[in-house]
Design a protein that fits this description.
By secondary structure, the protein is mainly α. It has helices at 2-10, 12-30, 41-45, 52-60, 63-66, 75-90, 92-98, 101-132, 146-173, 178-189, 191-203, 209-231, 267-285, 290-296, 304-325, 328-337, 349-383, 395-418; strands spanning 233-240, 242-245, 248-251, 254-260, 340-341, 431-432, 435-436.
Length: 437
């Protein structure tokens, strides 16, 4: 893998893409140190810890703890994406727009941006009035009032716009999905602190070193299993009919449709976290509502109730996103249009039913895998005596890190193969223009 990274940096345009990703992610991480005007970050740190704030800090990369200009991070954008995708499935004009090619996708992306800005304004106002304003974390000369609320809303809207811009530029000029990489960078940036916290628990006697070693060894095997399942796919054979055009024989080749066991990737996990954040924020804003606090344990993935809810959400979103990203009817129509067919299956409706049956079976195992992996690290922590884990070591954190890393490496490998360079899977010497380096 290290040699493949060296290969990537030897190609000028690929090196430029990697530097774009590193540079824009660095800009995002620098935003952690820019607090929202009027907020004293040092006094606020002790008040925004645990519960919902740990969950918000997990997905925002620590920005919520400092209440920086990027405090909301990608949360409004992801929430808006969920809403737009749901509406695309049930609202005919949006469904029609999604089938209009690049122009339709561009307009849907624009609607998602507008939705993210609107949700960010509402969430920023909510944070200012219900969570930040009533605390004593305001700077000298600032008071909890309309001016402070307006300042927070404007700052957070600007921060959301910048984060969306960074994510889109990473996707356009870099390698990988920009929004996923922003979340990935936030989680990876929290690893040193999480490891230091685990070691401090050993030093204080709250945990034992033997249990910690066993936990991390089992975690390595769990990550290896994640990689294995994420790479697994079923290949559906496809045969194209042979036809003669003049003196040329066209078609007749055999290929396959790759169907990954986890076709939805890491998107269901990110969606599940975004859904968990919403009720948890309401719970933190209304601490005196008894029934709301009692229901709050079901939305905290650190306990067994929240673990069940998060697992069910991941399974549900896996089915939902797979149905959106892989449409058997559309693939069947494309095959028939270009003269392709699945051996032993009649083109048309029978091909659609065949692909649907295979998709449902594979999605079932993929969803169960994601649900199991989501619960496994927390279960290992309880079994080895490590107690409640940091969210970065939870199943959600590991799934996001492993999924985003694999997707990015897969795209980088495809770029290397297009230039006749060895990728991450293949091994050997680099070949280019007849020379051996």
């Amino acid at each position: 893998m290290l040699s493949a990274f060296g290969n990537a940096f030897r190609i000028p345009d690929l090196r430029a893409k990697l530097l774009v990703v590193i540079g824009l992610l660095s800009v995002y991480r620098l935003g952690v140190f820019i607090p929202t005007p009027g907020v004293d970050a040092e006094r606020l740190q002790g008040q925004l810890s645990g519960g919902v704030f740990e969950l918000l800090g997990f997905i925002s990369g620590g920005n919520i703890e400092q209440f920086s200009v990027f405090a909301l991070g990608v949360i409004p954008y992801i929430t808006a994406s969920i809403i737009i995708q749901l509406l695309t499935s049930v609202y005919p004009p949006l469904e029609k727009l999604s089938k209009e090619g690049e122009e339709g996708r561009r307009r849907i992306t624009q609607y998602t941006r507008y939705g993210a800005i609107g949700l960010g304004a509402v969430q920023g106002l909510f944070l200012a009035t219900a969570l930040i304003g009533p605390t004593d974390a305001l700077r000298v000369g600032w008071s909890n009032g309309p001016f402070f609320w307006l300042t927070v809303v404007i700052t957070q809207i600007a921060g959301i716009a910048v984060v969306m811009y960074l994510g889109e530029k990473i996707t356009e000029y870099g390698i990988g999905n920009g929004i996923s990489l922003i979340i990935y960078a936030g989680i990876v940036g929290a690893y040193p602190q999480a490891v230091a916290q685990s070691l401090s628990l050993v030093g204080s006697g709250e945990s034992n070193i033997f249990g910690l070693i066993i936990f991390f060894l089992l975690l390595v095997f769990a990550i290896a299993g994640m990689v294995l399942i994420q790479q697994a796919e079923r290949r559906i054979p496809v045969q194209y009919a042979r036809k003669v055009v003049g003196r040329r024989v066209m078609g007749g080749q055999s290929t396959y449709i790759p169907m990954r066991l986890n076709a939805a990737g890491v998107i269901p996990v990110i969606f599940a976290v975004s859904v968990l954040v919403i009720p948890s924020t309401l719970i933190a804003a209304f601490p005196n509502v008894v029934w709301l606090q009692a229901a709050g344990v079901w939305f905290n993935p650190a306990n067994w109730q929240g673990l069940i809810v998060s697992t069910l959400l991941i399974v549900a979103f896996t089915y939902f996103y797979t149905q959106i990203s892989f449409d058997p009817k559309r693939i069947s129509e494309n095959l028939r249009e270009y003269g392709g067919f699945v051996p032993g299956v009649r083109p048309g409706q029978q091909t659609t039913e065949h692909l649907t049956r295979i998709t449902n079976r594979i999605t079932l195992w993929g969803a169960l895998f994601l649900g199991l992996v989501n619960a496994l690290p927390q279960l290992l922590g309880w079994i080895t005596g490590q107690g409640t884990l940091s969210l970065v070591f939870s199943g959600i954190g590991l799934l996001i890190v492993v999924g985003v890393a694999l997707d990015t490496l897969r795209q980088l490998e495809s770029q290397l193969k297009m230039r006749h360079y060895d990728g991450f899977v293949s091994r050997g010497r680099i070949r280019g223009r007849g020379r051996r380096f």
